């Protein structure tokens, strides 16, 4: 329906198009080979009026402009040429010079001004539509992993987390993702859900990625890196494009499953003043199944299974986290007169867990994504000196997110709407991001509350204990008595696949109360405005820019995530910055750039972020470039760091904002019979303030030293970053070699951290009496707090990339990344750094776009060594891996089509990005892309 409507609109508006008065014809060729270049863009300078060269490189441009005027001829991978048109029916022949290397490509993100990658003062990686066509990955987003220094952690088929320079998590709040200038992060989660709700592959013009801190220009949270996805303009890239992709995902646990990926883009310039575009994307597939049933305890793997460990807690088994000490149950039953006096002595002081449900019983593993985007572009003066843009993006989808628990994100809706005024030297834009969690739910609480729906915990453990006592009195040994006890307690269990289980499941996942349900509620919004002005037309001795931004969060989870029980929580952030860039020496060989930004968040003191960089271009052709930079970055605590108040099953999560501690109180917690003498109640509620001010450190409880925790309120974390680098072209006998090298060192201060603490139900920590008795009686609960580490933390690394042509035109690229961090665990025993990054990575690319006429291929290989993954879900070592992707493509010019056949992880050896996620198998695809 959308397609039909847009086509009718295009036809209607096109009927009033102007009649051409001047005709220009010509041919576009490759300056080196003499071959014609199809698809080159020919347009009047600074205007949208233009055309494209056909499959033979020929073009006809008809315009209303009267000579003289200038036309620009451009195509990705080549230098742009300008030709002066002086008469009607002029015929031109244009030869375009191919960029010598990728270092000749133009980027904007590094300094907010156009410059060659070669001349950029900081490290920058880039991908454009030509690279997307050539990528061997199933999608352009997956293909980012082949870039130097870039890590992608696979949460699920549709949720990939991009990171650079360490400290990776699936909830990667240290890395920003901007789509057409809009922060693509979920307002509540504070990180992007991969490209689930991002940009259509057909609409991607460029992707630029800056590793490392960028706060001096882009503000808080541009801490580990920032990625810019820029879409195509409907003025410059017109027509209808369609992409059809189908294939298989193959995994041992899930089998072979089909997937489909459909994209369409429609764009048209109705005049040199008005243009519009629309995109639609739909993906349907099967997620990677998570089937790791190994036993865990205290966040680590341990030996045993359900048959050998009565307190079994399987990694991808949920509901078995509910556990209690049998002796305590027996004492309570004896006190109530349900068990005879002395019976408790027959029961061991041993913890037993309820029988859980496998993740596969709780998830559909249905991967879906539906994205719609549209923009209306208006140029009042008929050129690009001023443009007004309305841009809307709406996405709904299913995926899996792994945080403290595993969440089935289902029918998650996010939308962004932006109004932007953009000129030659400035932009002003405002946008809103809103989300609706849809039918999303927490799988751990789904299992816990399905269990409780057929038998509550007290009854289950009571029946277990009673049967154990009966079996023991009847002469059974311990193993036999435990088997009888579990069999008795399991009477009435809802079995997956039955109508009873389905009815209970449907009820639980629709209920947002975690005492009885598992639904994930959220309608949080984010409002953002930013502006930038470049004084280049008024100041000629240097390039000076100024800008600023303002953001407001409106947290609205109805108390299911945040402590917003009585209505939305609103808070604000703002920032201002300036940048000066000056070139010195003959031929502007030395470029000095300095910038300063000030940011202030409502709950925290302001932060200054300076940056200074120098870049020197040596060599006859300025193709030997050396650079060095110093900059600082900072990251404000996220919405969850500040205002979360959530029962995660294994612990209560409470944010560290000053006004959050008294907003949160746990659900009623049962007190032991012995402890009731001190509480005068059978239950207690523990406040967030008690977690921060009256708790033991978790580490001290485990090792038996029982030390008071030192947990401060959360505040912004800071990084000081130093980087030196070299980019250059080394002339070789057969072909030039492009080299890109960078070395960095980061020093962190007030690193934002989660710390686990243990809160006694009574007593004051440090009294060495009641608080210790509470631990002895089992009258305590665990909290996860959000705070900062006082430890000295640093990270450092090296990346180097080499690109050249071999064997008469084959592209060969290889890059290596080294990453490491230093941290003294003894200085902060309760802190987990979560570096989560392999020390060594090697990536290789080999291919040729034109192996023979219209046929190309590409192969990518990646190796990385093993590394330690630390998270609130589980800590474990991730094995080393080698992954090979490949594709072949064939162009059919008469159909304006490209066919691609490819696959990822072609060795078939499955691998994990982190403990608990589904093992990544192989993916095979066949695509047909039509560009008109």
Please characterize this protein's 3D structure:
It is a single chain. This protein is 13% helix and 45% strand. It has 932 residues and is mainly β. The chain has a 22-stranded antiparallel barrel. Strand 35 and strand 36 form a beta hairpin. Helix 5 packs across helix 7, helix 6 crosses helix 9 and helix 7 runs antiparallel to helix 8. The longest helix has 17 residues.
Which helices and strands occur, and which strands form pairs?
Layout (H helix, E strand, L loop, with lengths): L1 H13 L7 E9 L10 E4 L5 E3 L5 E6 L5 E6 L6 E5 L4 E7 L9 E2 L7 E2 L8 E4 H6 L5 H4 L6 E7 L2 E6 L10 E5 L2 E2 L20 E8 L3 H4 L6 E7 L7 E13 L3 E15 L4 E13 L9 E2 L2 E2 L15 E2 L4 E3 H10 L15 E3 L3 E2 L7 E13 L7 E17 L3 E18 L2 E11 L4 E2 H12 L2 H17 L4 H12 L9 H11 L15 E10 L8 E13 L13 E16 L5 E12 L5 E12 L5 E12 L3 H5 L1 E3 L4 E3 L14 E2 L5 H4 L3 E2 L3 H6 L2 E2 H6 L13 E14 L6 E13 L1 E10 L9 H7 L3 E10 L3 E14 L3 E14 L16 E13 L2 E10 L2 E3 L6 E3 L2 E12 L4 E8 L17 E10 L1
Parallel strand pairs: 1-7, 13-16, 38-45
Antiparallel strand pairs: 1-4, 2-3, 2-5, 5-6, 8-9, 10-15, 11-12, 13-14, 15-16, 17-18, 17-54, 18-19, 19-26, 20-21, 22-25, 23-24, 26-27, 27-28, 28-29, 28-30, 29-31, 31-32, 32-33, 33-34, 34-35, 35-36, 36-42, 37-38, 39-40, 41-44, 42-43, 43-46, 44-45, 46-47, 47-48, 48-49, 49-52, 50-51, 52-53, 53-54
Helix pairs in contact: 5-7, 6-9, 7-8
Feature tags:
14 helices, 932 residues, five-stranded mixed β-sheet, mainly beta, 22-stranded antiparallel β-barrel
Q: Which shape, going by the Cα principal axes?
A: elongated
* Approximate strand percentage: over 45%
Q: What is the CA-CA span between the terminal residues?
A: 20 Å
Report on the biggest sheet: 22 strands, antiparallel, barrel
Oligomer: single chain
Helix content class: 10-25%
Number of distinct beta strands: 54
Q: Which class best fits the helix and strand makeup? A: mainly beta
Poorly predicted runs of 5 or more residues = 1-20
Rg over C-alpha atoms, rounded to the nearest angstrom: 31 Å
Q: How many helix segments?
A: 14
Mean pLDDT: 90
């Amino acid at each position: 329906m959308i397609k039909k409507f847009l086509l009718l609109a295009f036809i209607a508006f096109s009927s009033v198009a102007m009649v051409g008065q001047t005709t220009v014809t010509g041919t576009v060729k490759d300056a080196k080979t003499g071959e014609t270049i199809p698809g080159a863009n020919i347009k009047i300078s600074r205007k949208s009026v233009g055309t494209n060269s056909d499959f033979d490189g020929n073009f006809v441009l008809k315009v209303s402009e009267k000579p003289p005027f200038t036309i620009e001829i451009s195509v990705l991978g080549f230098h742009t040429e300008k030709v002066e048109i002086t008469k009607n029916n002029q015929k031109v022949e244009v030869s375009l010079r191919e960029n010598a290397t990728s270092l000749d490509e133009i980027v904007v993100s590094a300094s907010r001004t156009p410059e060659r990658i070669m001349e950029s003062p900081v490290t920058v990686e880039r991908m454009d539509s030509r690279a997307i066509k050539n990528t061997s990955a199933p999608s352009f987003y997956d293909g980012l992993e082949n870039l130097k220094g870039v890590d992608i952690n696979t949460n699920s088929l549709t949720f990939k987390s991009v990171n650079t320079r360490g400290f990776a998590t699936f909830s990667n709040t240290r890395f920003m993702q901007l789509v057409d200038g809009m922060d693509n992060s979920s307002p509540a989660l504070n990180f992007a859900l991969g490209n689930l709700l991002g940009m259509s592959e057909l609409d991607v013009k460029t992707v630029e990625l800056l590793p490392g801190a960028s706060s001096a220009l882009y503000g808080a949270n541009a801490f580990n890196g920032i990625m810019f996805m820029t879409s195509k303009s409907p003025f410059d890239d017109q027509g209808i494009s369609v992409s059809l992709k189908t294939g298989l995902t193959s995994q041992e646990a899930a089998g072979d499953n089909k997937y489909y990926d459909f994209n369409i883009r429609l764009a048209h310039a109705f005049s040199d003043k008005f243009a519009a575009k629309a995109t639609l994307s739909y993906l349907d597939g099967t997620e990677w199944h998570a089937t790791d049933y190994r036993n865990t305890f205290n966040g680590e793997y341990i030996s045993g299974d359900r048959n050998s460990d009565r307190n079994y807690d399987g990694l991808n088994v949920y509901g078995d986290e509910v556990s209690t000490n049998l002796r305590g149950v027996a004492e309570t039953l004896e006190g109530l007169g349900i068990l005879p006096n002395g019976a408790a002595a027959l029961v061991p002081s041993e913890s037993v867990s309820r029988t859980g449900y496998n993740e596969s019983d709780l998830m559909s593993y249905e991967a879906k994504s539906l994205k719609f985007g549209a923009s209306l572009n208006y140029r009042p003066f008929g050129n690009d000196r001023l443009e007004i843009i309305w841009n809307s993006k709406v996405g709904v989808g299913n995926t899996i997110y792994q945080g403290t628990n595993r969440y089935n994100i289902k029918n998650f809706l996010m939308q962004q709407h932006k109004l932007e005024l953009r000129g030659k030297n400035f932009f002003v834009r405002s946008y809103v991001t809103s989300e609706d969690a849809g039918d999303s739910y927490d799988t751990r609480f789904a299992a816990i509350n399905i269990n409780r729906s057929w038998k509550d915990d007290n009854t289950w453990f009571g029946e277990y204990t009673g049967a154990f006592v009966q079996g023991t009195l009847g002469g059974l040994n311990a193993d036999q008595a435990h088997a009888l006890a579990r069999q008795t307690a399991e009477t009435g269990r809802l079995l997956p696949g039955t109508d009873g289980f389905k009815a209970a499941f449907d009820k639980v996942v629709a209920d947002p109360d975690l005492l009885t349900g598992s639904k994930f509620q959220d309608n949080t919004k984010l409002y953002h405005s930013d502006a930038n002005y470049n004084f280049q037309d008024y100041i000629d001795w240097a390039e000076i820019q100024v800008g600023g931004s303002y953001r407001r969060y409106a947290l609205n989870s109805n108390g299911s995530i945040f402590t917003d029980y009585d209505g939305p929580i609103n808070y604000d952030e703002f920032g201002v910055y300036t940048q000066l860039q000056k070139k010195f020496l003959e031929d502007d060989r030395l470029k000095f750039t300095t910038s300063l930004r000030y940011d202030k968040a409502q709950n925290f003191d302001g932060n200054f972020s300076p940056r200074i960089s120098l870049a020197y271009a040596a060599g006859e052709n300025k193709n030997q470039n050396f650079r060095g930079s110093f900059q600082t970055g900072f990251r404000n605590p996220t919405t969850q760091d500040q205002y979360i108040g959530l029962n995660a099953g294994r612990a209560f999560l409470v944010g560290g904002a000053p006004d959050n501690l008294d907003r949160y109180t746990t659900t009623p917690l049962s007190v032991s019979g012995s402890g009731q003498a001190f509480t005068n109640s059978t239950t207690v509620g523990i406040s967030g303030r008690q977690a921060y001010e009256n708790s033991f450190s978790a580490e001290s409880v485990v090792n038996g030293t029982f030390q008071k925790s030192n947990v401060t309120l959360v505040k912004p974390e800071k990084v000081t970053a130093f980087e030196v680098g070299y980019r250059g072209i080394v002339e070789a006998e057969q072909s030039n070699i492009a080299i890109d090298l960078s070395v960095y060192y980061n020093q962190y201060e007030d690193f934002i951290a989660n710390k686990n603490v243990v809160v006694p139900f009574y007593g004051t920590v440090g009294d060495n009496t009641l608080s210790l008795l509470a631990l002895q009686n089992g009258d305590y609960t665990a909290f996860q707090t959000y705070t900062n580490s006082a430890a000295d933390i640093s990270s450092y690394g090296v990346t180097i990339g080499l690109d050249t042509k071999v064997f008469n035109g084959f592209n060969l690229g290889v890059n290596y990344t080294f990453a490491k961090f230093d941290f003294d665990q003894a200085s902060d025993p309760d802190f987990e750094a979560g570096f989560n990054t392999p020390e060594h990575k090697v990536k290789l690319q080999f291919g040729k776009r034109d192996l023979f006429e219209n046929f190309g291929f590409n192969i990518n290989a990646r190796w990385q060594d093993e590394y330690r993954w630390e998270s609130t879900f589980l800590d474990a070592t991730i094995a080393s891996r080698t992954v090979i992707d490949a594709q072949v493509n064939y162009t059919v010019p008469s159909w304006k089509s490209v066919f691609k056949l490819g696959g990822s992880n072609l060795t078939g050896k499955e691998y994990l990005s982190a403990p608990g996620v589904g093992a990544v198998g192989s993916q095979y695809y066949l695509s047909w892309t039509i560009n008109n």
